[in-house]
Amino acid sequence: MPTRWDFKLIRDPLYGFVGLSKLEDRLLNTIAMQRLSRIKQLAHTYIVYPSAVHTRLEHSIGALYIAGRICDKLKISQKQKKIIRICSLLHDIGQGPFSHIFEEPMRWVNGEDYTHEYVTRLIIEYEPKIKKILGNLKEDILNVFNGDSLSSDIISSSLDADKLDYLRRDSYHTGVAYGIFDLERVLHTLCKVSEGGREYLAVEEKGKDALESYRLARFAMHLQVYEHHTRLIADDMFIKAMKCAFNEGCLVKEDFKISDDINHFIENFLKFDDYSIQHYILNNSRGNARKLIENIRNRNLLKRAFMVPLTKEGVKNPLRREKIIKMNREQIEKIEERIANELGIDPVHVIVHLQSIKIKLYERFEETIGKKEKPILIKKRDGSVISFDEVSPISASLNPIRRLYVFCPKKYVERAKKIAEDIFKVKSAF
Fold it and tell me: Does residue 365 carry a pLDDT above 60?
């Protein structure tokens, strides 16, 4: 028998048939949601893993499915389940072209506090079609995104529907096994605990081994997929293309600025996806912005010329190591210019990338105080609650993995390596 959640069935490669309510189906068919079908979940990762072309739209449907199952396990009311499922469906609606990497260009215009989550809330509140479909539910939806509650934890926390879906989905589409973990065991052992009149998402003690697998999966995916050096090159080339496009005037910063005219911003923002932003630059730039986009599209990428792990083995001098780790964007750009000048090429063709892979799920409890992403809670058999880092044998041992890269055109690799070694006073490990 069809249920209220089975107005429309969608076939998903991970979960089989995913049911949508009539309201969810209407939201799915809006321009704002369908735009997500033209935004790749993993940006330029397809350059390394060719099948990684899945989109934010299918991930949003997957997150909705997982959120619904969490609600069922926690015996959340049907009314609140409706709200949570919609939040999961809409949670990425504020993502820009090529997903998270678009946030850096947006920060140039809107300041360092800019996030795609803020744009998500703006679209829900002001975009006419979304606003009309949600009707009286709009404020309930915004309260979940803005709030601090069990419902908010299901949407955004250390163990939310978003992460539970994207790890397995990204693993599936890249063809790697790193993101595989026992989802069924995690969902089966989910529970809620109360403290100070507030309910929190937690996991029963018997689920801690599946939880450890989940955390390791996230770490391994960052190490082998999300932070792969070839993807970093393509992402950084795109960011440089955006900077050139603003400097050339083919993209206007004011069009991306969140001002009092929210409707103008939303209308313009929703025009851009992976394909339209590339075509817009290609059609309007006659300089470096166009060339960089063409090079990305043709896989004519910059090459790795220099790499050093920022460890005591890689950079023995602790003061020099600390100085490199603390470099800001302005300092990095000056080094890019210096290397480019010595090579006799345009600085847009030199990238210095300071990489730091730190998985928040491995932070100690005290390190998360005051931060958005809290530690995962374990409900012990006696009913007491502890942080997972207190019982995990490896949570405290995983320090951030930091590396320094220099990328440049292939024919300058050897010279760039020597220049970088002179600048940083350390031998390349590559």
Answer: no
Q: What is the DSSP string of 392-428?
A: -SSTTT-PPEEEEEEEE-GGGHHHHHHHHHHHHTS--
269-317 pLDDT tens trace: 999 999 999 999 999 999 999 999 999 999 999 999 999 999 999 999 9
- Helix, strand and coil content of the chain, in percent to the nearest 5, comes to 55, 10, 30
Return d(Cα 207, Cα 226) in angstroms, integer. Answer: 27
Report the candidate in 106, 426, 63, 73 with the shortest Cα–Cα distance to residue 257: 106
Helix (DSSP H) and strand (DSSP E) numbers for the chain: 19, 9
Residue 2 confidence (pLDDT): 45
| pTM higher than 0.85 | yes
CA distance 309 to 420: 14
What angle do helix axes 274-284 and 288-297 make, rounded to 10 degrees?
Answer: 140
Q: Which two tokens stand for residue 216?
A: 């390791």
Rounded distance between C-alpha atoms, residue 291 and residue 51, angstroms: 25
Cα(first)–Cα(last) distance of the chain, in Å?
Answer: 60
pLDDT for 389: 79
- CB 376 within 8 Å of CB 203: yes
Rounded CA separation 208/65 (Å): 23
Query: Cα-flanking dihedrals φ and ψ of residue 36, to 5°?
Result: -65, -20
- Residue in this structure with the two tokens 């969490």, named with its chain if needed: 70
Task: Assign 167 to helix, strand or coil.
Answer: helix
Identify the band that residue 214 occupies on the pLDDT scale cut at 50, 70 and 90.
very high
Using CA atoms, how far apart are residues 148 and 187, in angstroms rounded to an integer? 21
Distance CA 203, CA 153 (A): 13
Q: Are 339 and 424 spatial neighbours (Cβ–Cβ below 8 Å)?
A: no
* pLDDT band at residue 401 using 50, 70 and 90 as cut-offs: confident
Q: How far apart are CA 348 and CA 317, in angstroms?
A: 30
Which amino acid makes up residue 217?
Answer: A
Q: Report the distance separating Cα 85 and Cα 154, nearest Å.
A: 10
Angle between helices 329-343 and 413-424 (to 10 degrees): 130
Q: What is the pLDDT of residue 1?
A: 38
Tokens 């207190």 label which residue? 390
- Please state, rounded to an integer, the average pLDDT across all residues of the chain: 92
Sign of CA pseudo-dihedral 336, 306, 405, 234: positive
**pLDDT of 68 higher than 50:** yes
